[in-house]
Specification:
alpha/beta; 7 helices
Amino acid sequence: MRRLPPLNALRVFEVAARTNSYVEAAAELGLTHGAVSRQVSILEDWLGQRLFVRSGRRMVATPIARVFAAEVSLSFDRLTSAAEACGKPNVRRILRVSAPTSFSTRWLIPRLGRFHDSHPQVEVSVTTVSTVHEELRGGFDVAVRRGTAKANAWPQHRATYILDDVDTLVMSPALFARHPTDDGQRLDRSAVLQFAATSRARSLQCSTS
């Protein structure tokens, strides 16, 4: 007989670890912050192991929790696939897509209407991720990330090249006057401003019906 942990607590924990935020998990699951905290505490008691620690005003996943969450996500993926495979034919299916926020809002979501015209039985659920890291976490069927398919940065997944990505150099007129260039090769001694976003995830239920 299998000794299984509480499944509802596992579900809440997986989302909290994926988003690394009780607040984000509560928003995605439609729960209160307190409900998320209680479910995580139930699972911690069952495991006899702390899964989240306080960092400032946030509760963040411990290293062991991140490892555990990845395994839980894979288990949920297999359970979902088995349920879909054994379900009734021609029922509505959900395609889970993980993609950067800008790509989702500017490219993906505007094309969902045309996708639904060709695949009316599929509902697309988009989880938007804003992060400088190229990690792949959480349950998804398709993930869109910047990278090189040939380099296979994600050996546990099959990478497929889909689009070109172009970086644009933005210069002030004064800097361009001092360093006239069109390729940025002469700017190696100049200060570079970069945008670094924290890792967040939001779920958008994009029903195209």
